[in-house]
Amino acid sequence: MARRAILTDEVIDASLLLDGFVEASRGEGAVASFLGLARSRAMSGGDVSLLRLERHPQLTQLSLDAIVSEGAERFQLAHVLVKHRWGSISPGEVIVFVATSARHRRDALNAVDYLMDCLKSEAIFWKKEEGADGSRWIEPTDEDRASLARWE
Amino acid sequence: MVNEVRLTFYGRLAEEYHQADFPVPPEGLPVDQLRATLARGRPSSSLLNPRVKVAVGGQIVDERFQVLPGQQVDFLAPVSGG
Question: Taking the model in full, what pTM does it have?
């Protein structure tokens, strides 16, 4: 079983990642994937020109590794890949790529949902949206916390 | 040798604190005292938020941890998530 959590400050090519993941998952029953994209409008309605994701030199990778391991164990995954970007991200660009494979579709699909809920609340990043109206720090919402609580 | 720790502030804390070094006694200082000393005179300091975690040498530590001269101390604002 391959479990990989990759942290990068480069543009993520989701198509290339998915092609490679499907090839590696040959023989499994199901592959599921998700892309998180940088928004062009803030939740408040203002335009967003740039998303800045700050990471910690050691702890961010450790937090991704822990989330991937928990997901792989919980859903008995054949393979799992999370690739997460940090740095300055423009609207429309990929922030995070998640892919899972398993014998059955329910495990693959639920694992992607679980991994995203964990990433949204527990991954060690600090996010700031910048736009014409100024900049603002992003914090996990009540919805994010409720989503994570589903899995307890 | 100068008895100092190196400080880095993450997230919104970096907008409030800009120190890169801080003097500590040769025997060190517990995290809670370091936190309180940095926040002295700033009763509304974000540093006093219990959700602000502290890492030393790349590992999260508790408030009783003794920070020693020469160590890297990171103050982590509550995370945004990915």
Answer: 0.92
